[in-house]
Design a protein that fits this description.
The complex is a heterotrimer of chains A (252), B (289) and C (284). Chain B is an all-alpha fold. Helices cover 76% and strands 1% of the residues of chain B. Chain B has 2 domains: 38 residues; 241 residues, MetI-like (MetI-like fold, Orthogonal Bundle), CATH 1.10.3720.10. Chain B has a two-stranded antiparallel ribbon. Chain C is mainly α and 284 residues long. Helix content of chain C is 76%, strand content 1%. Chain C contains 11 helices and 2 strands. In chain C, strands 1-2 form a two-stranded antiparallel sheet. In chain C, α1 crosses α11, α3 packs antiparallel against α8 and α8 runs antiparallel to α11. The chains are: A alpha/beta (252), B mainly alpha (289), C mainly alpha (284). Chains A and B meet through α2, α3 and α6 of A and α7 and α8 of B.
Amino acid sequence: MVDNQLQTTNLNLWFGNNHVLHDVNLGIKGKKITAIIGPSGCGKSTLLRTFNRMNDLIPEAKITGEVLLDGENVYNPKVDVTSIRTRIGMVFQKPNPFPKSIYNNVAYGLVIQKKYRKSEIQARVEESLKAAWIWEEVKDRLHESAMSLSGGQQQRLCIARALANNPEVLLLDEPTSALDPQSTAKIEELCLDLKNRVTILIVTHNIAQAGRISDYTAYMYLGELVEFGETNKVFTVPQDKRTEAYLTGVYG
Amino acid sequence: MKSYKENLFKGITYTSALFVLFFLLSIISSIFKEGITIFGTIGIKDFLLGTAYYPTQEPPKFGVFSLILGSVYVTAGALLIAIPLGLGAAVYIAEIASLKIKEITKPIIELLAGIPSVVYGLFGITFLAPAIRQWFGLDSGLNIFSASIILGIMIIPIITSMSEDALNTIPKELREASLALGANKWETITKIIIPAAKSGIIGSILLGFGRAIGETMVVLMVAGGSAQIPHSIFSSVRPMTSAIAAEMGETVVGDLHYYALFALAMVLFVITLISNLITELVFLKQVKK
Amino acid sequence: MNRRKLSQYVGINLLRLCLLITIAFLFLFLYIIISKGIGVISWSFLTQPPLKGMTEGGIYPALVGSFWLTLLAITIATPLGISTAIFLRCYGKPKWLMQIVRISINTLAGIPSIVYGLFGLAVFVNLLKFNVSLISGALTLAILALPLIINSGEEALRSVPGEFYDASLALGATVSQTIMRVLIPTALPNILTGIIISIGRVAGETAPIMFTAATFYTLKLPHSLSDEIMALPYHIYALITEGTHAESQVPIAYGTAVVLLFLVLGISALAIIIRYRIRKKRKW
């Protein structure tokens, strides 16, 4: 059995008295795209956020179980959460560039770490913008505000920003749901290109999107991991009745 | 019948609004009418830049530069104290404090804002000034230093509450983005949130400035009252507001001193007007974003 | 501990320090004022006039003077202010007029209180020949309070959901009926809060009344609008700067300050509590 790059073991999460994630055991393979799908409120975004400990921001959140990155538990108190977030990047549903220049947006994660020289940062910024397929569009205006970009461009900028840290894993939380179809298509293609360099975990409410780009699919329902497997298998021969019902549109 | 009542009602509200304009114009015209008169006797430059202020001498001298300087120094001192403390408190309350602490400190700061200035002045002249006199071995504790401290404390609530409002309008998505990139809370605050709230914070400082430079009772009681150019932080000064308040009682309507004080009020008015205008522009910039 | 964590630790604690220093100032301040003033206060302090050249006795006339001054000023300013707030919220055409009115309000709000005092002196005392009197002071304070009442009134009206307005008109009510029967009653608690805060502000002002209404000592209580009055804030100032017997007068000043603080802060606290209660009860 190939070791999984990311693995949750008996993961449970509560928001106050609300039991939101039930005994989730999910293994993510390196350098592949894994999609998490499921109806609204099933906990997929919450699950995604456990990987980079963004749920820590919510005071009523309580977690038991482990989340392993290359075998280490990210919730180990000795672990520095900021270093986890450097290794596991995140792109959000609504593009959220900082009100700064394009350059400074992408450079942010590196500047923060205080260990890169200016020349290194410049090189990484250019490289990330190229990897996010937006370099050509912004190379002549790196010092203009990021807010002057269109929605699709802003999202690619956010991807570049996350890539600048050279993360091992990229978490995408419904990255195209706020975008138009062309931008969506572009980002889907981009993901297929990026999986060679970074493991991708994408939450989506768009089943077709999951079918188009993912290697593995996890189906969640009411906080439980109902089914997980290679995408074409899950889509053509789902093992669980609930998975089948969701995929055929009975609910969702 | 109905429309008559409607129009009457509407007319009343319009009239009230016009009254506001009318009051403003009356204030401006009355101050300026009396103030301008002095410039028949003394030129504007001599008035504003002259350093000899002897209004009760014969012949009287009305160079108010030392008064203006007094206002400036005391205000600057107050801002030096109020900005770090006020902003620091605002950032702590908005970004770090728990909900419980937030709920307790907000009313406390509002309470601070409601204390009448004369009570601040009383505290300054009877408690702080003697203490400062003792600590530093001075002849008198009524000086720029003491006045700045009291004035500074007085304007902290303005800076704190407005900055806090500005910080609270920053959407949480920006915080999330910063943290998700591996920044810690402090870095997020200093690199992302405070810069994003810049205009609101600057606006609060400008408001504090306007309040401080226009304040009368505190400086009247604590700044000393000497109309000389100050040479140290422990010099006694007579800011413009104190000069007006202290000397008005001694003037006769229509004598030069009377007009000079109105002219001083003109200067004060213009300064606060400009400060307000800048504040409006700053806020306009924020809204545009 | 690495550099970044250290910066965060130092930074956050510096901020905490700022808050603590601010609160410490407040408590020190209140402690000094209250401890030095509370001893002087007694029933006779509140009900007796000053005696023996202001070295003994009470502050009753100042209390009465402040009361009338504040009552008159707020009574004049409130209808004017709320009416203007209604203009801003519900009418407001043409746009340039509204802009001008807004600019006027903001400008008025920024005028130093001593300039208001001079204005009152020039116009009410001298020009209109009201002399130094209750009415001169009240009118001056009324204009000073106007921007406060307008702004809080407008905010109060804005807090009423637009749906109520629409529903009333849809039932055939006129604009004025909607405003008087729906908007104002719904916004009333917030309007009241604004008025209460203005009361606190007006009661504590000294500079506007120095040359328009207040006097250090007057034998009689105000019987008419044209009488000079004593007032609490002015009394404090006068005792300290014009008084001749410091040992007996400073404590009286502190006592007056405690009374004034109690009234002003009590009023502010009342406004905060009302606002808190409304927020809780709100069903929309």
